[in-house]
Amino acid sequence: MGGRVSGPKPDAGVQTAMSILSHVDFAPILGRLIRARVPDLLDDGAVHAVTLANQSGLHPLSTVRALRALTAFGVFREVAPSTFVNSEASNLFRDAPGGLRNYALFATSEQFLKSCAALGHSLETGQASHDHALGQKVWEYMRDHPDENAAFNRGLAEIRKDEQAAIAAAYDWTGVTAVVDVGAGAGALLACIVAATPGVCGILFDRPDVLPDADHLLRGRGVRERCELVGGSFFEPMQVTGDIWILSQVLHDWPEAECQAILARCRERARSGDRLLVVEMVPVPGQPDVGIALLDMAMMMFGGEARQRTVEEYNELFAATGFSPSGVLATGTAFSILEARPS
């Protein structure tokens, strides 16, 4: 009675599985701490958890337990009993430039967590778990919840900033005068392209409710005066023109029929000599990749049959919509550039 019971040590697979399952508990806790601005309250150094709780309207004992638990994952550090400082990870959740606060707000939102919990519905039906859990399609929900929409767009810009710079640097923009970024979100990739390529103007095309976030980001990057913002739907005729048409992390959001519709709208406006660049993570069958796997499950969650596609699947989409594939370019990141030209 009371003695320690020994047994076989869990194998690596069990440890990994349990670790993944336990993260479901920590996402809402971390999100609440970020919304209570606990990382910001630790900006000047160590603070006792009871003081943090009183300053942020949280329960003292629960705050101690949550912070202590998160230290096991490298988020926060306990430097004295019940006294904590920011770790390198939690420092990124402060309301400061260069961090991951916006992405964390989205990834710990009720929208995201409810959609995750309903993924079994997607497995059973092929439908988006988001629609089942929230009663709206993801873009309708974003339109009706502007704060979460802003966190989503700014969050994507945060987590992809270095990758977008590398993507922009990987392509030869010689002779290009105008780049149309279709479904550009906040415009982080377009900002990198315009900043690195003198003489190129950018046209950012996305839903009207996204444009304020794009204006904010482009001004912050110092390229707003070289970019035109155009609101509209890529399922309808687009009154824009450019030498390069970019679809960056757009097609993975949609099932087959919608992808063909988007590409067809681009083809309507693309002239002979124009180029289409599709920027996506591209899976290779038999070569599993954790990043692609997680993103593909997110696409199932938000778009049902929306998914990460292979090169062959993209080539089929190009052929069905009047484009001819002309190459696949590595970028030094998890993303590839699939180039196509009007047939």
Key terms:
343 residues; alpha/beta; Arc Repressor Mutant, subunit A; Rossmann fold; 2 domains; seven-stranded mixed sheet; 10 strands; 15% strand; disordered N terminus
Structure notes:
There is one protein chain. This protein folds into two domains: 85 residues, Winged helix-like DNA-binding domain superfamily/Winged helix DNA-binding domain (Arc Repressor Mutant, subunit A, Orthogonal Bundle); 181 residues, Vaccinia Virus protein VP39 (Rossmann fold, 3-Layer(aba) Sandwich), CATH 3.40.50.150. The chain is 49% helix and 15% strand. Strands 6-5-4-7-8-10-9 form a seven-stranded mixed sheet, sandwiched between helices. Strands 1-3-2 form a three-stranded antiparallel sheet. The longest helix is centred in the middle third of the chain and has 25 residues. The N terminus is likely disordered.
Beta-strand segment tally: 10
Query: What would you call the quaternary organization?
Result: single chain
Give, in spatial order, the strands making up the sheet with the most strands.
6-5-4-7-8-10-9
Low-pLDDT residue spans: 1-10
CATH homologous superfamily heading of the largest domain: Vaccinia Virus protein VP39
Per CATH, what is the topology of the largest domain? Rossmann fold
Rg (CA only) = 22 Å
- The CATH class assignment of the largest domain is Alpha Beta
Globally, the shape reads globular
- How helical, in percent, are the residues? 40-55%
Number of helices: 16
Sequence of secondary-structure elements: HHEHHEEHHHHHHHEHEHEEHEHHEE
In this structure, how is the largest beta sheet organized? 7 strands, mixed
Mean pLDDT: 91
Count of all domains:
2
CATH architecture of the largest domain: 3-Layer(aba) Sandwich
Content of β-strand = 5-15%
Tell me the span between the first and last alpha carbons.
Answer: 78 Å
